[in-house]
Structures are given as C-alpha cells and as structure tokens.
Amino acid sequence: MMHRIFAALLAGSTATTPLLAQSHDQHQNHSAMDHSQMDHSRMDDQPDQPAAEAPEAESPSGPLKAADAIWGAEEMLASREALYDEHGDMMLFWFQGDRAEYRVRAGEDGYLWDVQGYYGGDINKFWFKSEGEGSFGEPIEDAEIQALYSRAIAPFFDLQAGVRQDLTGPTRTHAVVGIQGLVPYMFEVDAAAFLSDKGDLTARIEAEYDQRLTQSLVLQPRAEINLAAQDIPELGVGAGIDNLELGLRLRYEIVPEFAPYIGIEQEWKLGDSRDFARTAGEDPSVTNYVVGVRFWF
Amino acid sequence: MYMIKSNLAISRRNMIGSLAALAGTTALPMPAWAMGKMGGRVRNGMDQLSGPDVDLHVGSGLFRTGSRSGHAIAVNGTVPGPLIRLREGQDVRLNVHNMLDEDSSVHWHGLLLPFQFDGVPGISFPGIKPGERFTAPFKVRQHGTYWWHSHSGLQEQMGHYGPLIIDPAGPDPVQYDREHVILLSEFAAMHPHEIMKKLKVSEGYFSRQKASATDDYDFSGAERRMWGRMRMMPTDIADVSAPTYTYMINGHGPDDGLELPFSPGERVRLRIINGSAMTFFNIRLPGLPMTVVQADGQDVQPVEVDELQIGVAETYDVIVQPTKEGAFALAAESMDRSGMAQATLTSQPGRQAEFPALRDPPLLSMTDMGHGGMDHGNGAHGHEGHGAKPAAAMDHSQMDHGKMGHGKMDHSQMDHSKMSHGAMKPDTNLGAAPMDNHDMANMGGMKMRDTSLLPDSVKVGPGIDMVAMNPMDRTGFPGLGLDNVPHRVLNYRMLKSLKMDHHKRSPDREMQLHLTGNMERYMWSFDGKKMSAVGDDPIRFRYDERVRVKLVNDTMMAHPIHLHGMFFEVVNGQGHHQPKKHTVIVQPGSSATFDVTTDEPGDWAFHCHLLYHMHAGMMQAVSIEFPKDA
Ligand SMILES: [Cu+2]
Questions:
Q1: Hey, are the CB atoms on B601 and A3 less than 8 Å from each other?
Q2: Whose C-alpha in A270, B58, B88, B260 is 20 to 30 A from the C-alpha of B503?
Q3: What is the per-residue DSSP string for B220-238?
Q4: Which residues pair with B596 in a beta bridge?
C-alpha cells in the first residue's frame, strides 16, 4: 500500500529521482560502518539465541535521507541541522555565586566572593572562576580570575586547563590544570595546580558537601587547603601547607537558585606561612562568622 | 470547584447525530483561530473533527487551569487540540496550518502512513514554516486509540497535542455503550526551555521529595551511604513533577472538577492516552475494576485489573461498568506520587467523587540499577496474592536480591532464550533464587559502571554513568511503586493480542541497543551516542526484515521507547498472541525485547518519549529500504 503511494510520488516528481539514486550510492560507501553498527557480534555472548546473523553481503541497506528524495535535499537541510543541534548539541550558559558573603571577625569585618560559570555543551565548555576577599576600609586583599577550557573526561569529572590572573598584590599569571567534579559520597571537589610566571608552583583543593536537612534547608561543610612547593615571601606563602579553611554553612533555599545562608569559618595559616603572618603582624588563625547568599542562574 | 461537563461524552446512540452536526460546521464562518494569531485565552478541552478533510490551526495564547496560567500553544484554540475521529478504510487529508512565528509540525502517533507525512522535522520532512500549510493525504488502514503532537522543539510541552481515534471498518470487537477520551498531560507555567536548562545544570531541581536528614523514607543509613557512594539518588523517579506541573485530564487540572457522565449499568469505554511530556501515571478508579481491551490502539484480550501504569505516549482502552448511581474517582497519580490528574465519573451532574490521597513516593532499588538477580515485582505474582507486602519490607528484599546476584547470580535466569519460544512462561523461575544474608554495606562494592559489559557498539564516555550488571527482562514488572500494592495491576506479560497470528516469522537477525544516560549531567542517548552524533548514520533495515531488538536499559529511569511508522510485538511470552505496540517502557536496569517486521519503507524516528530525554539526544533515525519493485 504505502510503497505504491511512494512510487506514485516518485513518478510524479522525476526531478527528485536522481536524488534518490544518489542517496543509494552514498549508503554503499557507508556499508562497512553500518555493518559494525547493526551486526552486534556481542550477541554471541548469549547462548541459545535462535536468530542467525545477517550475512555480510546482505547487510542492511535502508536509504540514507529518504526525505531528500521527496522534499528535496536543499529543503531538508535546515531542519536536519536544527534537529541535530537541538537533540544533543545544546549550548548552555550557567553562572553561580557559590559564596558571596559578609564576614564578621576580630578586627575589621571582611567580605568574600567565590563565583564560577560556564558556557558550552555536554563535553566541552568555557569555564570561568573568580574569587577574592578583603577587609572593609582596606584595599582588596586577594582577587583572582581564571579562564579555563573544561572537558568532561568521566561521568562525574571535568578536566580543566587555562590561565589564572591575580588582580592584587604583586600580580602574577598562572597556568592552571585541575579537576572538578563529584567524588563518591557526593562531595563536590575542585582541585587545581598553578604554575606562576615566576616559576612558583602552588595547589588548591576544595571540597564541599550538601547535607539536606529538609527539602529546603541544607547544611554545607566545606574545606579548602592551599599548598605551595616553595616559599613565596612576597606573598606571605610558605612551603608545604600554606593554609587551611574549614567552614560550615546553613542555607535556606527560597528557590533552588537563591539561598541565603549563615555560617562559620575557621582559617589557619600553617608552617612558614604562619611565621610570615606573625612577622607581618597578622593573626595566623582567624574565625569568621559569615552571612551570605548562594545563587545561580 | 466548579463543574465542567465533558464535551466528549459520546454515546453510541447519538454518534450519528454528532457527526452530522460536525459536518454542518464546515458551512459556518471561519472561527478566530482559523484566521490568524490568537493571543487570547485558550480554551480547556477539545472539540471533535472528522470527515475527509481535517484542518488543524496551530496558534498560541494564554492557558489557565486552577491557579496556574501561562503561555500555551493551542490547536484550533484549545488545549488539548481537537479530537480527530476517523474511520478505518477512509481517505483523509490532514491539513496543518502553522500560525506560530516559528516552525511547527504534527506527528500522528501510532498511525500507519507514508513516512514523508509522519511529521518529524529533519527526518521525514522539512517542518512547517510560519504561515505555511502541510497536508498529509493517506488511506486509514487501522483502527484504535491514538494521538498526535508536535515534533518541533519542545512545543508538545506547551499544549500542542490532541487525541486521534479511528473507528473500525467492521464491528468493533469491544462492546460498549458510552466512551470517554481521557487525555492525560501536564501544564507548566515555566517555559520548556527553562525546564530543560534547569534539568541540565541542577540535578534533582524539580524534586521536592529528595532524601534528607528528616525524611521518613524507610531505608537505613547504610543504604543512604551506598546511594551517596554511587553518586545517585534513590528518589530519581521523575525529572519534572508536581511542584512545576499541573496534571491534567483533557486540559483540566484537579481544581476544574472535570465530570464524565455515565448511566448505571452502562459499559463505559475509557480511551486513556498519556499525552504528557514527562509523566508516567498510575490509573485507578477505586471501587471499579478496569478491563483492558486495547493497548496502543491494538485490540487485546480483555484482562481485568484494578490499577495500571501508563507510560508517556502509551494508550490503554479500558471498560468500566459502574452498576449503580454514584460518583467514581478517576485518579491518575504521577509515578513519583507528587500529584494527580483527576476526573469524576458520575451519574449525577455536580456530584464529585472523593479522591484517594497520594501514596508515599516509591524509592529506586538495586533491581532498578540492573543488579537484580530477579524481577521481584511481577504483577503475575502480585495479583495472585503473593505481593501484598508493605513497601519497606519489599524494598529490603529487593536489595538483598541485588546483592545476592553479585556472587550467586543464577545464570539460568539471565537466559533470555526462553523468551524467543513464546509459549514459555517467563515467570516460572522468579523467586527461585537462593538468598543470603550479606549486609547492606557490601552492596556498594558492586560495580556501578563496568563498561566491559557493554558491546562494542556502545560508545563509552562521560554520557554513561551506569551499566546494568545483570539486566533482567522486566516485562512482568507493573511499574515503579506498583509492585506491592494489594490489588491487581497490569503488566506487559498480561497483554495478549486479541487475534492469533500464525504467520509470524522467527527473527532473521537480532540487534541490541543500550539506553544510556548520565543523571548528573542530564545526558541521554542510545548506545552512548546522542542524536546529534548519529543523525547521518541511521539504524538500517532491509525491506521486510524480521528483526528482534533487545533494548537494555543502563539507567535508573524507565524509558518509554517509541518507534514511528510501524508496530512491533513485545516479546512477552505470549507466543502467537504477543501484543503489538508502538511504545514500550523499558524498566530501569532491565531489558525489554521486541520483534519488528520492517515493511514500512523510509526514514522514521525512534526515540525515548520523555520529551527532555529526547531533546537531550535520546533519539535515532531508523531507515528501512524501499522494496526493489517500488
Ligand atoms: Cu528516556
């Protein structure tokens, strides 16, 4: 029935007939690939399968783009591209303020931001990060921005590489290589190594965990550790463990995209960094009481 | 609550009259929606169209149900769009007028017709440009309950769908006095592109049923840690649910109080269509057993059940026969039990039924991860009275079985060869496997993603977060959360085609296709390859091949897999009575097998009917060669 209709349609549009012929030619070229796709030799793994495999000479030979023969290849082109774009190749933009907070502490109160975002598809993304902190009434203490190429390398991990630019102090540029993702037990981890244009090698590992208390109340423990391969006196960084931060934040998700929080964070400078801090008249151990907001869009 | 009378209550007696009335409308002046953009209010519910020429005008407007309103795509001014009623054997021209300012399309879901009219932009036709008309002329060669919907972008989520019913040329094998079309769907005020983005960037965004420190889910700390170790959520039942969706019957949310009339003693045929974008529904009419008589438009041997789960894009026709006056609740609970679509089957106008409360949400089990040594929830057992255990007990037993499968997997159970000899009962082994008492903590040691189990055809990458270790055939499973209810529930193994088919050939060849995904990244695909990666490399069939296709679900979600253009037979152990379907649910971590005769040439879409899964890439083109003599 239906092939009769089709035959009639074909006969009625002689101009399109060569197109059909052409598409058949094309498929000949693809036949090797088709075979590997269709002929699942793995079926052998299962004994007692009654069906025989198709002999190679008769490998399946459906038409390639049968619609081209009816509607015209030109006509089909745009819709086909849209189909592929929409069904798998979608690009997304995401921006997250993971921490944007006011910090109450001994001495001058301070502030901190920690934002990131991306633009891209499932596998390849342009990723950016920025964080910084300071005390009110003083110049910004630390600020940096990173521009990274991020590639999904495993179900839960992205490999990231790019540059980091420090915006304060003796400004430096770093090459960055890192891993970001979700480790077992649902810890979000971001670990990166930085090699500066002065040859200094440092690293940073951050981990956070969301413990849902109710559908909208989330307790988030967070840890960050900074490491250095060498002393960097002008930055007050000592070799080994430079500093350690442990935080606990309780946020309320008014909507998942917008969640104010309160929390506490303890910072320690360790080893040589502690000595650098003391020399500079700073307290190597600081407790921050924080209030902030986590948001994304 | 106010009352709305179903405008589709058609008794057989006045059918002729209503057809005549419809014929009359063609002489009336053109309605507003036929003349240009609408922009106005969209009407809830649908009209009916029949005859040799059917005209659908796709426009847009503001839709409201209950307290929720928003932008919608309406066809002929209503959501759902009109019921198209045809007769087997007639010639019809289906005309689609696109009055949107973007491309549109209509796919006639379940209809046998030349591929170029199937309505999938980029596969079977170029799509319908704004202001253009598309005509599909063909002869109707089947009967049954079907539906239609847009295949462009995410328009279906916005209201671009409607029912399609074909009356048989001869006498209907189903006796009934009255019928109601029950078109299930959802409405979201949020734009579908927004929904898609949130799914992509925020795992579990739409769920308000997540496990938490204060939940009352009955599973232990060890189990919770195990799920955490796997980086998965046992509450991942539905991607989008009630906080965002209003579940509807015929365009009416629960607040609308939709009423469907009946007279006591009548055999009432409910043509249930799941036209939703993302929602599996559990259908019940407490106090009224349902006799299933049709599945996906194909007549089946009557089977009486008390509840059934309907996957996205499936249809079931059931007969109910309320013998006395009263009001019965038609409760369509979403599979994750976050909400319900409601209508009242009532003998007295204005009398509303009492609706059952939402039941506790189900949780995923080890079986849903493909670690099941056995298919526990099989309705065949369940409705014989073995299955009525409390939910918690059941979940534990499933977990134990999963672990047991680790060391002592009974390979005889994996042997699906019995499936090929249709007469055999796939049920027989179930429950026979030994159990042991390893504690829960051991289970997390099982490999969630052993990619060596995958055939070479599967592209392994970040898009696959799980591989079913022991994907059992679960066609006997009634659906998530229904494996332990204390009443009869439908499952696929209970479906037998009405007519015997002796002409069935055994398969010429077999192929296996893996359903793959990554919940965290919201990536979905077949064989690890998204539509965008395989578009120019369709799955190929020769003309009139007989192919056995085994779908292996390497994810924890149930996927309703739909093949355009033809019917396949679900290999369910019913031999010459295997049911024909256009959509098959492949349960989590399991397999389902179908046989198809590839006698509908052309290029056809093949995809998961969860709209956002398809949109993320869980789609393929199937290409069937033209016969040599064409
Ligand atoms: Cu799916």
A1: yes
A2: B88
A3: -HHHHHHHHHHT--TTTT-
A4: B547, B568
* Angstrom distance (rounded) from CA B524 to CA B627: 34
Question: What contacts B330, CB < 8 A, 6 or more positions away?
Answer: B182, B249, B260, B270, B283, B285, B342, B343, B344, B345, B353
Subunit contact B116:A67, Cβ cutoff 8 A: yes
A230's CB contacts (< 8 A; 6+ apart) are: A200, A201, A239
- Does the beta carbon of A184 lie under 8 angstroms from any beta carbon of chain B? yes
**Triad A256, A260, A263: Cα angle to 5°:** 125
Question: What is this model's ipTM?
Answer: 0.81
- The DSSP result for B69-83, as a single string, is EEEEEEETTEES-PE
Tens of pLDDT, residue by residue over B352-363, are: 999 999 999 998
Query: What SS3 class is residue B111?
Result: coil
Q: DSSP letter string over B130-169? A: TT-EEEEEEE----EEEEEE--STTGGGGT-EEEEEEE-S
Q: Are B601 and A156 a contacting pair at CB < 8 A?
A: no
Rounded mean pLDDT of chain B? 84
The percent helix, strand, coil of chain A (3-state, each to 5) is 25, 50, 25
HSE-CB at B18 with a 13 A cutoff on CA atoms is 14
Provide the shortest C-alpha distance from residue A92 to chain B (in Å): 7
Q: Which two tokens stand for residue A131?
A: 């964080």
Angle at A205 between CA A200 and CA A207, to 5 degrees: 165
- What are B518-539's pLDDT values in tens digits? 999 999 999 999 999 998 889 9
pLDDT at B30: 56
- List chain B residues with CB under 8 Å of A87: 530-532, 614-617, 619
Does the structure show a pLDDT above 50 at A17?
A: no
Strand segments, DSSP code E, in B229-297 are 245-249, 258-261, 268-274, 281-284, 290-295
Largest CA distance in chain A: 92
Give me the pLDDT at residue A5, please.
40
Residue B465 CA to ligand 1 center (angstroms) comes to 14
Under-70 pLDDT residues of chain B:
1-39, 372-446, 629-630
What pLDDT does B187 receive? 97
Both tokens of B259, joined, read 């009423």
| pLDDT range class, residue A65, cuts 50, 70, 90 | confident
Cα B106 to Cα A55, A211, B33, B162, B270, distances in angstroms? 38, 45, 17, 10, 24
**Chain B environment of A80 (Cβ under 8 Å):** 122-123, 535
Q: 3-class DSSP state for residue B266?
A: coil
Are B570 and B594 spatial neighbours (Cβ–Cβ below 8 Å)? Answer: yes
Q: Give the separation between CA B526 and CA B93, rounded to whole angstroms.
A: 34
- pLDDT, tens only, A153-192: 999 999 999 999 999 988 899 999 999 999 998 999 999 9
Q: Please, are residues B120 and B127 in contact by the beta-carbon 8 Å criterion?
A: no
> Quick one: DSSP state of residue B384?
I
Q: Describe the strand order of the beta sheet including B4-5 as a list of residue ranges.
A: B4-5, B258-261, B340-346, B327-334, B281-284, B307-310
- pLDDT of B588-628, one tens digit each? 999 999 999 999 999 999 999 999 999 999 999 999 998 87
Q: How far apart are CA A1 and CA A6, in angstroms?
A: 9
Contact A80 B124 (CB under 8 A): no
- Range list of β-strands (E), B466-558: 472-473, 509-518, 523-526, 539-541, 546-553
CB B519 within 8 A of CB B465: yes
The full DSSP string for B416-436 is THHHHSTTS-TTTTTT-S---
Contact yes or no for A69/B126 (Cβ under 8 A): no
Q: In chain B, what residues touch A97 (CB-CB under 8 Å)? A: none
